[in-house]
Amino acid sequence: MSERKAIVMMPEDEAFTTQAAANYLGMSRQFFVNLLEKGEIPFHRVGTHRRVTFKDLLDYEKKRDKSRRESMDRLADEVIAAGKYDSDYVGEE
Fold it and tell me: pTM score > 0.85 for this model?
């Protein structure tokens, strides 16, 4: 709110369509459906349509972000260990 951005309050059990969930996570619908079919994100069906709860999207997003941070930390450690990191150039144009 202090940044003047919109705030949306939503119950954790709100059900998203696969397209809405993919949009929220910033990926294609097909990639998202593949994650569902691999069991990486829980879902339920309403007739023939898949639905995902907001809580499950948040859980996946946290897991994905943690994995990304760990990968970047490992990469940074490898760069430093290889002697390829030069702090003199950080932040300079």
Answer: no
